[in-house]
Design goal:
Elements lengths: L1 H26 L3 H5 L4 H19 L6 H4 L4 H5 L13 H7 L3
């Protein structure tokens, strides 16, 4: 029973422990340790999905001329959004963005 409670407690608190470790690495400006906690391909995908969803919400839609032509500047900008977010989606971006 104690083992079950211990395992359940660790499972419940493991996100908190991970965040504490990430915070400590960031405060120590230890980019290599912080990088061990980040899944960059998933972060990139999530960032692009969120950005595309927000962009789609703000683009004109319906029966107006701008929507029929592709949504204006937002439509043209969507494919080029890849590297315009500060580089926080790769280890080099984390390392270079931390204050020295």
């Amino acid at each position: 029973m104690a083992a079950l409670l211990g395992t359940g407690g660790y499972w419940y608190f493991s996100p908190y422990l991970t965040l504490q470790s990430m915070k400590a690495a960031a405060e120590a400006k230890d980019a290599e340790k912080l990088n061990t906690y980040v899944d960059y391909p998933k972060l990139r995908g999530s960032f692009k999905n969120d950005l595309n969803a927000r962009l789609a919400e703000n683009l004109p839609s319906g029966d107006n001329e701008l929507a029929r032509r592709g949504g204006g500047a937002g439509h043209d900008a969507q494919p080029s959004l890849g590297r315009r977010h500060g580089g926080y989606d790769d280890p080099a971006g984390i390392h270079h963005s931390s204050p020295q």
